[in-house]
Amino acid sequence: MQGGLKIIDAFLPTLDLFLEYNQVQPYTYSHSNISNAWTHYGQFLGHPYGANLREVSLAFRYQPVGGLTLEGRYIHLLQGLNTPTQNWGSSPFISDVNFVQPFGNRLLQGERVSRRLLMGRLVYQPFLQPAYLEMEGHWRDGAITLLGGLRWMLAPKVLRF
Question: Distance between CA atoms of 24 and 101, rounded to whole angstroms?
C-alpha cells in the first residue's frame, strides 16, 4: 500500500511539501523459486529494504531566492526482519516455501528494527549558468555523511511527458 500528499506553494510561494506512507506485507516480493523473485542483479525492485515494513517519509523543497534551493527529507522505517533460522518474509532472496507459519502472518513480524534517515541539501546556481554548487548531508541511525561539489550540466534537460 502506498499513499501520499504533495502540496505545491504551501504557505510560501516556492515552498513544496511532501508526505508519503508505504506499507509492504510479508513475503510480497518472494517466490518459491528465488530466481523468479522481484529482484534484479542482487537488488530489490519493489522497495529498497524489501518487504514486511512500514515507512513514513516527509520532505520539503524551498527556493527562497532565484538560484538557491533548499531540500530536506526525513524517513522513519519499521521493519520485521528474518532471524538466522526463521523466514518472516522480509527478504525476497529467501524462498517463500520456507515460511514460519502458513496462516496468521502480520505486518512487522519477526525481529523488529527501526531505521531513521535525515537528509538535507543545498543547491546554488550562480548567474543562471549550467553550473551548480551542491552540499548534501545525511544522518542515518547515528552515522553522518557529508557530500559536496560542483555539477556541470552539459546538455539541457529535456522534459518528456
Answer: 18
Q: How confident is the model at residue 68 (pLDDT cuts 50, 70, 90)?
A: very high
pLDDT at 11 over 80: yes
Q: What are phi and psi of 149, to 5 degrees?
A: 165, -170
Q: What is the DSSP string of 52-81?
A: SEEEEEEEEEE-SSTTEEEEEEEEEEEEEE
Question: Domain tally for the chain?
Answer: 1
Mean pLDDT of 79-90: 91
- Cα separation, 72 vs 18, whole angstroms: 10
Does residue 158 form part of some domain?
no
Tell whether 84 is covered by a domain: yes
Could you list the residue range(s) of the whole structural domain that residue 136 is in? 2-152
